Amino acid sequence: MEEFMQFIDNLNEKEYINFFNSQSNTHFLQSYEWGQTQKETRNQIPCYVGLKDDNNKIVAAALLLKKKTPLNMCYYYAPRGFVIDYENEELFKTFVDNLKTYLKNNNAIYLKVDPGIKYQDINDDASKKENGSNNYKIFDEFINSGFKHQGFYKLYEGNQPRYTIRINLKQPWDTIENSISKTFMKTVRKSNNYDLEIKQSDDIKTFHDLILNNANKNDFKAYSLNYYQSFYNNFKKYNHVKIFNAIVHPDKLIKKTQTELNDLQQKIENNQIPEKRMANTKNSIKRLEKDLEVFSPYQNKYPDGKIVCSLICSYTNHAAWTLYIGNDSLGTHTAAVNRCYYEALKDAYDNNYEFYDLFGTIGDPKTTYKNLAGLHEFKRKFGGEYIEFLGEFDLINKPVWYKILPHLLKIYRTLKK
Question: 36 CB contacts (<8 Å, ≥6 apart)?
Fold first, then answer.
C-alpha cells in the first residue's frame, strides 16, 4: 500500500526548527534563521515548505528564498538544497513532484538548489581520486527528476562555493592538531608572545570596522553593518553564532617588551651571551625593537585592550562554519588571524561538533584570479578534507522566461546603479 504524503507550504517556526535539528546532514544556510536574515537584509521572502507522512510526521523540508519579479512572477532558491534523505529515491521523487506543483501554483520561473552533498572524492589538485567514493547516484536523481545542472564551475561563479575544506572533529585532538601545517602552528605559537586575549563577544560594530579595513586593503566588498547585525541577532536567538575576538594590551606589551630588550642588551654588555647564541640574540633584539615601534603609537590609548581581529562563526546542532573575519595591522603583526581560527577550531572540538568547515574554496588551486589561490593555500594549512559539492541545479517551470530573466536582471541592475 502506497504511503500518503501531504505537502505543506507553510511550516511554522517550531515545526521547521524541530525537524531541522533532528537531521544530521544539515547546513546553516538551510536554517530558519538564515531565512529570516535574508528577509531583513536582501528583500527575499523565506518560505518553509515540507512533506508530512500519514502520521503527520515531517519527512522532508526546505527553505525556499523567494524573489519577486515583474508581471507577478518569481523565482526561488533553496540554499544547500533540501533537508531530506537523498538515499530514499521514492521520497526524493515525491518531494520534487510536489515542488513542481508548488512552482506552478506560485507562477514561479524556476527553483535553484545547490545541495551540500559531496560529488566525489578529490586529490589536492581537485582531480578525481581513483577508487574514491562518490555520489553520482544522487547527481543522477536530480537530472532524472527534471533539474538542469549548471556546470562544474571551479571558482565562485555560483551562489555558493562548490568546494570547501572540512575538518573532521570526531578524532583525537592530537590527530587534528598534528594535521595542521607546521608553519601555521608556528604562527599560533608566535601569537603567544603577545599575550593575546581571546574572548567571545557581541560586538558587531567593532567587527564591522575591522572587516571594512580588510575590504579596503584586499579589494572586496564587505556587507553593511545592518547585514551583520541582522545575521548575528537571528542566529544568536538559537545560539548558532559566536564572535571570537583577539585583544592586545599595548601598554602591558610595551612594558614587557622593553624589559626583555633591556635584559638582552645588558647581557651583551656584560658578555653573558655565548658566541654561538649571539646571532640569535641579535635577531631577538631586532624583533623586540620592531615590536616597540609597532606598539608605541597605541600607548596610553587602550587601557582595556584593543580588539585587533574578530571572527564570526555559525553553527547548527552538529557542525561549525567559519564565515567572516576582520583584522587591522596589529592583528597581522601579532598573528591574531591564525590564532582566532585556531581557538574557534578548539572551541568547536570542545563542544563536540562533528566538523569545522572553512566555508568555501576553489577547485583550481593554481588559478591566477585575484588572490584565490593564496586563500585556498591558507585553508589547506588546516589539513582538513578537500570537498567537491554537486553544484547548482535549476528546476525550470517557465522555459521562455527562464531564458529571458538573466537579460532582464542585467538591465535592471545596470539601471539601478
Answer: 46, 234
- The C-alpha cell at 219 is 579589494
Half-sphere exposure of 12 (CA within 13 A, CB side): 1
pLDDT tens sequence across 294-321: 999 999 999 999 999 999 999 999 999 9
**Residues 404-413: pLDDT tens digits?**
988 877 776 6
CB 322 within 8 A of CB 359: yes
For residue 350, the Cα-to-chain-centroid distance in whole angstroms is: 19
Q: Which amino acid is at 263?
A: D
How is residue 167 written as a grid cell?
Answer: 575538518
Measure the CA–CA gap between 178 and 374, rounded to whole angstroms.
22
Note whether 392 and 152 are within 8 A (CB). Answer: no
Terminal CA-to-CA distance of the chain, rounded, Å? Answer: 58
pLDDT tens digits along 21-45: 999 899 999 999 999 999 999 999 9
Asked if 80 and 319 touch (Cβ cutoff 8 Å), the reply is: no
Rg of the chain's alpha carbons, rounded to an integer? 25
